[in-house]
Specification:
Layout (H helix, E strand, L loop, with lengths): L16 H9 L2 H12 L4 E2 H7 L5 H13 L3 E7 L4 E6 L1 H4 L2 H14 L1
Antiparallel strand pairs: 1-3, 2-3
């Protein structure tokens, strides 16, 4: 019997939109940050987000916010220099993800 060589899938080459979306927003804290920015105040400071998202660490929050900025999903604005006050808000691109979160909620409610 002829044996064919196994071909390993190179996931780094995938161009699947679902995979690429998951790479950007698919982790727990990123989704919670988005949820907070959608359903909380329109503009929120770092410490506000930190308080609402307990038990997230400040280091993790900073990394996740930077990641969302990199993809233009949120914007960061320095409001005051001393003491430093920064506000985060969703961009137009970020607002387009609201329906995704709403669909997650609908799906979950349908399986309860």
């Amino acid at each position: 019997m002829l044996s064919l060589p196994r071909i390993k899938t190179d996931y780094a080459k995938f161009t699947c939109p679902v995979k690429n979306t998951i790479d950007i927003i698919g982790d727990k804290w990123t989704l919670f940050i988005l949820r907070e920015l959608y359903y909380g105040k329109e503009k929120q400071g770092f410490n506000e987000l930190l308080g609402y998202l307990k038990p997230i660490s400040s280091r993790t929050l900073a990394k996740k916010l930077h990641h969302l900025q990199k993809y233009n999903i949120i914007s960061r604005k320095i409001v005051r220099e001393k003491p430093l006050k920064v506000e985060y808000r969703l961009t137009k691109k970020g607002l387009k993800l609201k329906n995704v979160l709403q669909e997650f909620a609908k799906w979950y409610k349908s399986i309860e």
